[in-house]
Amino acid sequence: MSTLAVTQDDIVKIVSEHLAAVDNFDAQLDNFIAAGRDYGGFVSRIQRRVASFKEWIETAEENCHVARDREVGPWAVAARREAPSKVVLTGPAADDEEEVETENEDEADYLMSDHFIGMLAENCQMFHELETLMVQLIHAYASVKDAKANLGVPADEAVQSHIRLLKQYNDVKDVGQQLIGLIAENRGVPIKTLYENGDYGVTAED
User: Which PANTHER family did the record assign (predicted)?
Assistant: First the structure.
């Protein structure tokens, strides 16, 4: 039976799995902006958030210790209709709000639709979940690595270090399983297939 031992290579695999999704979403945002549908900079703000996220995961791909200080940023986007031809777009930060006066009700309908705000919200929620899990995983990975580097300390400290390592192991295991779930969802395959092919060094029994 294999054990769950997260390495830099594992981080690289996880990042690689999601870079394509980041690039695809960025391309969709480009299309909105090119079509004149930035809506007062609303789409551009989301695109800057995506760019920041991409830069961070690429840093994590190179060196987890450098990326460990990341805090999960805001990702929530939403829309509310205040009049037949007026929609308020919010996000990704809580205080980001853009009041849009549309030319007609059809355009307001579009802003409220799954094709616009629904798609943006769904993608932002996915990246929020991914960023949260990646932050947890990187912290756990870096902490375990630091603890291992401090072996050879006095007995009482060694016991405490062992307890911390065990807790970190369980944290890594939980986060790793959630990330595998996200990857399976992104690929559109059952989770068990990722365990079966062994790409991530774990099986369903771990």
Answer: DNA REPAIR PROTEIN SWI5 HOMOLOG
Closest to 11 measured CA to CA, from 118, 126, 139, 122 = 139
Q: Which pLDDT tens digit goes with each residue over 26-67?
A: 999 999 999 999 999 999 999 999 999 888 878 776 766 665
Q: pTM for the complete prediction?
A: 0.68
Amino acid at 62: E
pLDDT in tens, 146-157: 655 655 555 455
Using a 10 angstrom Cβ sphere, with 0-12 exposed, 13-18 middle and 19 or more buried, the burial of residue 164 is middle
Identify the pLDDT of residue 181. Answer: 74
CB 123 within 8 A of CB 27: no
Rounded to an integer, what distance in angstroms lies between the CA atom of residue 93 and that of residue 18? 22
